[in-house]
Design goal:
The complex is a heterodimer of chains A (about 190) and B (about 180). Helices cover about 65% and strands about 0% of the residues of chain A. Chain B is mostly helical. Chain B is about 60% helix and about 5% strand.
């Protein structure tokens, strides 16, 4: 796949890629944009090479995840180095001060984001890939670099946590959800 | 994939989130163009490269300063005589014709020279003692005689060890002839 063709495919996936980068960067828009830019740079420099072993989306999401983890570690190191400085450097944005606050359409959505942010990273990733990106559990496992069994566990646990939290929220709001055992995503 | 009621609810929440994210997503062209420009900037401020270069420069400067300092150190005019070690096979003392090595010694190797001297003297003493013992043993072995040596001698040894001469008397010659018995 030549670079022009790859660019076209990346453009089609750009929106989904940004959403995944947001999830990997704890909903920090600036960081997500930087990660996405670094991913494109890696692709341009040939450091990230698509060999067609999986779907382009799975491969791209795996690269984004790895890059986000790397950037997060670099940021941690930088913060350690400048720990004595008074200047606040690259503080991860919380759901309260992030730019999309203006786009909050409902209180439920805001609380949902908070609940999502409280989930362990693996569980959040599994849920995001399945519900947000419409990937199967196998594809999600490929992106996360784990076995499908582990991915299923993270998915089920995350779903359980989210269900409990949302149930509490909706009970407060007077809404009762229908409880039912769910099928697996695969 | 069939979704249950709760999953549908979660899906709806995620869809809403996705719609929000799509509105705030940066343009692809902008991110792509920045990525194309980025390499030069990143290479210019690579902290690992800068740190490695600084370390290398510091090492080179330190080496240069150290070498200059060691060259400027005053040479010691003192000359210490270090006798050479004697040959291991010889039992005699080193010949007077062997001149001791005269080499200038800096304060750094005075200690080493004295240690070498002590070692050489000790080795020489040990060799002399060993050679004396060997000589004594060899002499003892050479002088040793068997207790039965006296039994090997007889009065006729002289006859067997001497030959008759032409100017000897017949009576003396007869003693060499075998006796005839008629």
């Amino acid at each position: 796949m030549d670079i022009a063709e790859l660019k076209g495919e990346l453009e089609k996936l750009h929106s989904a890629s940004f959403g995944w980068a947001l999830s990997c960067c704890r909903r920090d828009h600036a960081e997500a944009e930087e990660v996405l830019q670094t991913v494109y740079l890696k692709i341009l420099e040939g450091k990230a090479l698509y060999r067609g072993e999986s779907s382009l989306k799975t491969w791209l999401f795996a690269v984004i995840r790895k890059t986000a983890i790397g950037e997060y570690r670099k940021r941690l190191l930088r913060n350690l180095v400048f720990i004595g400085s008074t200047e606040k450097r690259d503080e991860p944005a919380t759901s309260a001060d992030a730019p999309p606050v203006i786009f909050e359409k409902s209180e439920i959505q805001k609380q949902f984001r908070v609940a999502l942010a409280k989930l362990p990273p693996r569980q959040r990733e599994a849920l995001h890939l399945v519900f947000y990106e419409d990937l199967s559990l196998r594809e999600a496992a490929d992106v996360m670099g784990i076995s499908i069994g582990s991915a299923r566990q993270h998915y089920e646990r995350g779903k359980k946590h989210l269900r409990e939290w949302l149930s509490d929220t909706e009970t407060e709001n007077g809404i009762v959800w229908r409880r039912k055992e769910t099928q697996s995503a695969v | 994939m069939e979704l249950s009621g709760e999953e549908k609810k979660l899906k709806a929440l995620f869809s809403e989130l996705k719609a929000t994210d799509e509105q705030t997503a940066p343009r692809f062209a902008g991110v792509w163009n920045r990525a194309q420009i980025a390499p030069r900037r990143i290479r210019a401020f690579n902290p690992a490269f800068v740190a490695a270069t600084a370390l290398l420069v510091f090492g080179l400067v330190s080496l240069a300063v150290w070498s200059r300092y060691s060259q400027r150190m005053p040479q010691q005019p003192m000359v210490v005589s270090v006798p050479t070690a004697p040959a291991p096979t010889g039992t005699t003392a080193p010949s007077p014709s062997n001149e001791p090595d005269m080499k200038p010694v800096t304060p750094h190797n005075i200690l080493a020279a004295s240690r070498a001297n002590r070692l050489a003297a000790r080795r020489h003493a040990m060799l002399v003692a060993a050679n004396r013992k060997l000589t004594r043993d060899a002499k003892t072995i050479a002088d040793w005689q068997s207790p039965t040596t006296a039994l090997l001698t007889s009065p006729s040894d002289e006859i067997f060890s001497s030959l008759p001469q032409f100017n000897q008397s017949t009576t003396q010659l007869k003693s060499f002839l075998p006796t005839r018995s008629n």
